[in-house]
């Protein structure tokens, strides 16, 4: 057996990111099995993990978890570099950018539910922007905007409520952030 010359130290943060990404990837795979009445509309349950990570460990860790979820989820689903991968990557990127900006908003007005709604709108906005630029003419997308916006509002709210309840649970690893509004 040849020993590798390159040895990368594995930190506790690396292990935490890997565990959290594995949970998000597992949820992504499970969610892929759920049939959708409208193509492209899913509850985004893995985003619950990303939002929990953001609130607990910060934006950088959330970005790693989200990126690994998109890459590994697409690889495991057999859609790496297919249009669905790029749409997912665009949605995740815009969602993370929105969350990065939103973390500068007053915490007492922007808690898990409002952050989840903003992230959901960012996600669908990123997907629609890429789809309009690459896959569908702009006029075809205009009729879909109300459907996708309603889905973002509903699923963003539900996912945000789940995050708020998980953070409020006594065994959630601590109390919610001080002054965080629901």
UniProtKB/TrEMBL annotation:
It comes from the Bacteria. InterPro entries: Hpre_diP_synt_I (IPR014535), Hpre_diP_synth_I (IPR010898). Keywords: Membrane, Transmembrane, Transmembrane helix. It holds the Pfam family Hpre_diP_synt_I. The chain crosses the membrane at residues 17-34, 79-101, 113-135, 141-164. This is Heptaprenyl diphosphate synthase. It comes from Thiobacillus denitrificans (strain ATCC 25259 / T1).
């Amino acid at each position: 057996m040849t020993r590798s010359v390159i040895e990368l130290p594995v930190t506790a943060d690396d292990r935490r990111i890997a565990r959290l990404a594995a949970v998000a990837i597992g949820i992504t795979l499970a969610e892929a099995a759920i049939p959708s009445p409208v193509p492209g509309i899913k509850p985004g349950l893995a985003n619950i993990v990303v939002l929990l990570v953001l609130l607990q460990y910060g934006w950088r860790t959330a970005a790693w978890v989200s990126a690994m979820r998109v890459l590994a989820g697409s690889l495991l689903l057999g859609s790496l570099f297919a249009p669905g991968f790029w749409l997912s990557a665009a949605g995740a990127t815009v969602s993370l950018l929105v969350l990065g900006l939103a973390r500068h908003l007053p915490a007492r007005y922007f808690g898990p539910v409002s952050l989840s709604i903003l992230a959901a709108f960012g996600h669908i906005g990123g997907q629609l922007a890429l789809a309009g630029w690459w896959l569908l003419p702009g006029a075809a997308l205009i009729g879909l905007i109300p459907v996708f916006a309603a889905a973002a509002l509903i699923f963003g709210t539900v996912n945000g409520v789940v995050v708020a309840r998980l953070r409020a649970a006594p065994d959630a690893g601590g109390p919610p952030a001080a002054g965080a509004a629901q």
